[in-house]
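User: Predict the structure for this protein chain, please.
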Amino acid sequence: MKLVNSNLEMIIDFEKGYFQLLTIENKSYYRKFIYNLINQIEGNEGNFCLSNNDKILDMSKQMVAISDIFNIDINSKKIKNKLISIISNEVKDSYDEIKHLIDNLENSIDAVIFDFETPIYRKKDIFFEDLLKLVDIEFEKTDDVLDTLLNYIELCSNYLSVDVFVFFNLSIFFTESEFELFCEEMIKKEYYILDIESEIRDCFPIDSSRIVRYIIDIDLCEI
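Assistant: Here is the predicted structure, written as structure tokens:
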């Protein structure tokens, strides 16, 4: 899987088991680069292109940019809708029991509205997914930022089929041991990772052979 920008020569070539590290030393270009990348991941047009075996991929479906690790929603609408869909499929073996429950609920509602003097009606049938939404099933949250981040990545991968995760200056938020744990988890689970840093950090707590470095220096030269 590859990520390119039409304004740059570099090709970020994702490979499982490797940590892609892009350093942009020019602060103004760093902001512009990140803004444009996030904007395109959110579904807008831009100069980036994500591909796999020469097939262009939809960045809004294949990539997630995590710009604020302190405000991660592991129960986002997309994730919860997928969870509800999976649970609905899992309970198909109990279809008759669930159908009986829904029929009783609909009959009870119909009986109540029938007694109103002003005519009213139920606009649609009740489906099992509607009941699950009322129950408000969620993934359990944690107060630990690193645990939340790891959980969110796993959920996005397993439930939304996200392939590429993008971070910004991630190393500054964690201790060396915490960042080592994070990197090891990403490599072990073979996620495609891109960390975009604003300055060169030589001391990454993982095997240097697992890091693929790209640099855009202060003069916007690609190294």
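The chain has a mean pLDDT of 89.
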